[in-house]
Design goal:
This protein has eight helices and nine strands. The chain has about 325 residues and is α+β, with helices and mostly antiparallel strands. It has two domains: about 5-115, no CATH class; about 190-315, Histidine kinase-like ATPase, C-terminal domain (Heat Shock Protein 90, 2-Layer Sandwich), CATH 3.30.565.10. A five-stranded mixed sheet has the order 5-6-7-9-8. Strand 8 (about 300-305) and strand 9 form a beta hairpin. The protein starts with a helix and ends with a strand.
C-alpha cells in the first residue's frame, strides 16, 4: 500500500469511527483532500457535488462502488496523486450511506412540497366551490325568486273571487313555466336567453315587460359591456325590483340603466314607505354589493318614508 493511500485510509477510518450517523460529504472531501496532500477534492454523489480546497486544472477522478453498484465518485487534484485504491474500496459503504441520506432528504422535501401542494389545491377547490355556491345562491335569489314573488302577488290578488282565479289561471301557469325555466337555466349555469343574445337592454326589457308597476328607461344605454358586467347589473336590478315588490307592494318602480362618460350606472327607485327593517336593508345591500363588487362597482341604498332608491355604478 502506498504511503499516501495508507495515510488517507487511516484518516478516513478515524473520521468514520466518531460518527453516529451518515458522514457529511463536504467533511469526507476535506478528510480525503487533507490526508492525501491534495489541493482540492470533490465528492460527487446523488447528482450533487461537494468541494474542498481550490483544486487545479487537472483532476484524477474515480468511481466508488459498493456491492458492485456505483455509489458516486471522488476527484482529487492534482492529477498526480493517483487512484488511491484502498481508500476507494473503503469509501463504498460511507458513500452508500451518504447517497441514501441525500435521497431520503430529497424524497422528504418532495413529499412536503406535494403535501403543501395538495393542501393548497384542496383549499383552492374549497374556496372555488364556496364561490360557485354563493354565485348560484345569488342567481337563484335574484332570478328565480323574482318570478316566484310576482307569482305569489298574482295569487294573492286572485284570492278575491273564483272568477278572478279563472281569469288569471293562464297567466299564473305562464309564470310557473317561467320560474321553472329560470331555475333550470340557473342550475345549468346558463344566462337568460335575451341577456345572453341581446345584451343588458334586451335582457331587462324581456324580464320586466310583464310588470305593470315597473317602468324601464334604457334610452341612455347605448354601449355594450362584458358578459360578467351585464350579468351583474341584470341580476342586481332584478334583486332591487324584487325587494321593492316584497317591501313596497303596490308601489311604482322606476328602473333606469344608462351610460355615463366613465361608467355604467343603474337606479331602481320605488314610491313605497321605505325600509323599516334594518336587517332586511343590510341583507339586500350585502347581496348586491357582493355581486357588483366582483366587477369593480359599488352599490348605494337610500331609503326614507318617501321611497327607496338603489343605485349602482361600475367604472369603465
Amino acid at each position: 500500500m502506498r504511503t499516501r493511500d495508507k495515510k488517507a485510509l487511516e484518516a478516513l477510518s478515524a473520521y468514520l469511527s466518531q460518527l453516529s450517523g451518515a458522514p457529511k460529504p463536504e467533511e469526507l472531501a476535506a478528510v480525503i483532500g487533507t490526508s492525501t496532500g491534495a489541493t482540492g477534492c470533490v465528492v460527487s454523489v446523488a447528482d450533487q457535488q461537494f468541494h474542498w480546497g481550490a483544486g487545479a486544472t487537472r483532476w484524477s477522478q474515480h468511481e466508488v462502488h459498493f456491492g458492485g453498484v456505483p455509489q458516486g465518485s471522488i476527484a482529487v487534484a492534482p492529477e498526480t496523486i493517483g487512484p488511491l485504491p484502498t481508500v476507494l474500496e473503503a469509501l463504498g459503504a460511507p458513500m452508500l450511506a451518504i447517497r441514501l441520506s441525500l435521497e431520503t432528504e430529497r424524497l422528504r422535501r418532495e413529499g412536503d412540497a406535494a403535501a403543501r401542494e395538495l393542501l393548497d389545491h384542496r383549499w383552492r377547490v374549497t374556496v372555488e366551490m364556496e364561490q360557485e355556491r354563493r354565485s348560484l345562491e345569488r342567481d337563484l335569489h335574484d332570478g328565480a325568486q323574482h318570478h316566484l314573488v310576482a307569482l305569489r302577488m298574482m295569487m294573492s290578488l286572485a284570492e278575491s273571487s273564483h272568477d278572478a282565479i279563472h281569469d288569471r289561471l293562464p297567466t299564473l301557469l305562464t309564470r310557473l313555466d317561467t320560474a321553472e325555466r329560470v331555475l333550470v337555466d340557473t342550475a345549468a349555469g346558463v344566462l337568460p336567453l335575451a341577456l345572453a343574445t341581446g345584451g343588458l337592454a334586451a335582457g331587462l326589457t324581456a324580464e320586466l315587460a310583464d310588470h305593470a308597476d315597473v317602468t324601464l328607461d334604457i334610452s341612455q344605454l347605448r354601449r355594450t359591456y362584458s358578459s360578467a358586467v351585464e350579468a351583474a347589473v341584470y341580476f342586481a336590478v332584478l334583486e332591487a325590483v324584487n325587494n321593492a315588490h316584497k317591501h313596497a307592494p303596490g308601489a311604482g318602480i322606476q328602473v333606469t340603466v344608462r351610460d355615463v362618460v366613465d361608467a355604467l350606472e343603474f337606479v331602481v327607485a320605488d314610491t313605497g314607505p321605505g325600509f323599516t327593517d334594518e336587517a332586511a336593508l343590510k341583507s339586500g345591500l350585502h347581496n348586491m354589493r357582493s355581486r357588483i363588487g366582483v366587477v369593480g362597482g359599488e352599490v348605494r341604498i337610500d331609503s326614507s318614508s318617501d321611497g327607496t332608491i338603489i343605485s349602482g355604478r361600475i367604472p369603465l
